Give the backbone structure.
Amino acid sequence: MTAVESDVIDLGVAAQSTASEITARDVSAWFGDHKVLEGVSLDMPSAQVTALIGPSGCGKSTFLRILNRMHELVPSAQLSGTIALDGTDIYRGDIPVTEMRRRIGMVFQKPNPFPAMTVSENVLAGLKLSGVKATRSERRDLVEDCLQRAGLWNEVKNRLGAAGGALSGGQQQRLCIARALAVKPKVLLMDEPCSALDPSSTRRIEETIAEIAHEVTIVIVTHNMQQAHRVSDQAAFFLAGEGTPGHIVEAGPTEQIFTAPADPRTLDYVNGRFG
Amino acid sequence: MAIVELVREDAPTAREGARPIRFRRVERNDVLAIGGSAIAASALAWLLFTRLTAAGVNLGMFVVGYLLFLLLVWGIGREQYDAVRARDLVARAVFWSVGLLLIVPMVAITVYTVAKGVAALTPNFFLEDQSRVGPLSPPSVGGASQAIVGTLEQVGLATLISVPLGVLVAVFLNEVGGRLARPVRMIVDAMSAIPSIVAGLFIFAAFILALGGQLSGFAAALALSVLMLPTVTRTTEVVLRLVPGGLREAGLALGATEWSTTRHVVLPTARSGIVTAVILGVARVIGETAPLLLTTLGATAMNANPFSGKQSALPLYVYRLFQLPQEVAIQRAWTGALVLLLLVLILFVTARIIGGRGAGHISRLRRARLAREGLA
Amino acid sequence: MQPIDPTIALEGFGPRVEDRVRPVTRRSGADRWFRGVVTGAGAFTLVLMGLIGLFLLIRSLDALRAAGPAFLTTAVWEPDGGAFGIAAVLLGTALIAVVALSMAVPVAIAGSIFITDYAPARMRTPLIWLVDLLAAVPSLIYGLWGRAYLQPKIIPISDWLSAHLGFIPFLDADRAAGFAASTFVASVVVALMVLPICTAVMREVFSQAPPGEKEGALALGGTRWGVIRTVVIPFGRGGMVGASMLGLGRALGETIAITLIISPTFDLGRLTRILETGGNSIASLIALRFSESSSFGISALMAAGLTLFVITLLVNAAASIVVARSRSGAATEI
């Protein structure tokens, strides 16, 4: 097991992970007998930012959680269809779920740094949690590198020994991004990462997204249309009707979705006329 | 929820504006009514029983006095407001008196135990054992060192057994669960109700009679761990439940196993709560006497080996000496009781202090280690 | 674990909407161990409880066979003389517990309502601490304090009660026998011991009384007592019953404090005159007789212990069910 892990989590800072493409085909999802997603197919190209937009309760977050197998943590959760990371089915029975989650990282809506760990320990949490050994200098370099990329280094370089929970909300969220980057994921999922933050923290997160987008594929769920417009290369509009499960109305390049969508409902939504 | 009754003092007009409205929980009049009634009723009852009749100070005086007090409160309420407010005032008087009554036993027990036990609390109590103590030896001769060592070893062993087990069971209940969780939770609840003497009987039957173990500190530790296990499990389960689910998700999303997430995220986050659980478990058993009567019996000489031969323990020492007729033996017993009470108090306060710490408390030791690595 | 082979073609593309599956979470070896170990620990508690009952039963078989049904009706304890039964000690245990509860429960109800609804915010935390601390004081110390300090204070009360209320059953007494070391004295001490347990559970239940309803009652001009009578007490009724039963379980199993206080008697008449000297309980019988018993005598004590074990389990199971029910009600009402 160790051999493969050290292959995946390459500690050398120089060997940056390369982004992967992630593909969903005909994905449907249920909680018990309640169907929440139907027939979702979406290509999320390598090293691009894909925004998932749509009103509350349309299944975007469920879809996002399906992409790194967090969906199945809910006991009644079921699904059908295929998710592939660079052509490999992530639900394939012979690949441990932990391996897939390491390749497809996630940042949550509410910043959740580990409160019992310091700032630097939070960044290194992925290594510790997977039992990966690293030398002292490798760890120090990794902490600095990830905090740099998350745009947090200058603010916390003198407070690395402070508890993760002692940072401000925006700093905590960037710490969570640094923590996710430290395991060198190929895809980074973000579930409304700015909804709990103030505008200036939001701006910092968006800058971070722009900086890391060339090295990791990003899929972001957001309710903020301006944000979706600013940060994403392509967008998918989800919608759930009365009693019908969520599905994709339209997906395409962000410019097209925001300026000349094919479906009138998309136009209404991006212009704030409903939802 | 605190119910605040809004009382305007000297109702300021809107134009005066600058004067803040003060919220007061109780009106001064009511305090005066209750306090005044209490004084008047006590005086009246005392007069009635010692001066006007020859009954003397007895239970009747307190009963009559208290009823008089409530009657006076009710009368004042009736006079000032109406029947509804009068009943409210009486209720307030009753609840306050019961509430203050709660404080009495703790204070009485502590003060009495200190008063009885402090005289013989000298260094030799901790340093010498009981083997040279005759029935009339003064408190300056001999001590309870064999009992203190026995208690430390027995409680220590019980902790070593029940804490890992209790934490594992709590982790099972909260992190893994499944169909087995319901019966386990029920049984752990039931186990916390086992009378301590029954735990002693069980260890006697299972360890001594069936397995051929000997009466020893270890047998006592086994009985104590049966009593400690449910306390540790239940308290730990409560604190694990307080760990936000988002942290577990964050761990799993980093590609960690459940084991690793529990080990590195959940347990450290609940660390202070788990320490509290351990301390409360220790406090629960440190004064237990009944199971020791059946498992280790006690001894007057030092026996530092808990696995072989009878061992003393502080509760046993107190229990045995208290039943002797000599004044000096009873005084030694009180000193032992005082030490036990102090231990429980210290454990309890420590548990509250540690339990009040947030998860982000980073010890000096850890900070130093991180600093050496250039990470702090 | 296999490295991912990127050349494997995607399977399962195409419309397969209805073949939904629960994803198979293939756990790593570490997690299978982890789940196995903690589940084993959980199962161990079940086994342990079973073993406690089983060992007590096995060890009491000798005595139970010899005594037969008379074990339940005999009021003496002379195992080596052939006559022994739990009638007297069971009656004594029940009397101490019931009398203790009748004193502790009203105080616990009022005390817990005082903490949740009357005490100023500054007083609340210290009071909760105090109640928890009272629960943590070892029963040995309650016993010492009860015998040395409390008993001399209670004797005149017993005297007064028997003189003025002696016509009430249980409260009559033979003054010549004295009032020390009685069921009543033991009950007062046990009452103080179960008081914090009952108060703590009731406080927790009362503190969950729906704030909306309380504010609603206040907004209608209700007094605080009105709120307590119409909202808090009806809400906490199940919790009050459950807490009392938890206290009952504790009182039934209390050993050392009772042993230190009572002077054991097997005279049923004396036992029922609770103010008079002399009382008994199962747990103190075991504590007092164990070290001087023959192996048959120990078997008889095991039978007594088994009885106590079963009774406390039943009482506590009933209590947990009542408390759990009242809590689940609390969740739905808000």
Observations:
- The two ends of chain C are 50 Å apart (CA to CA).
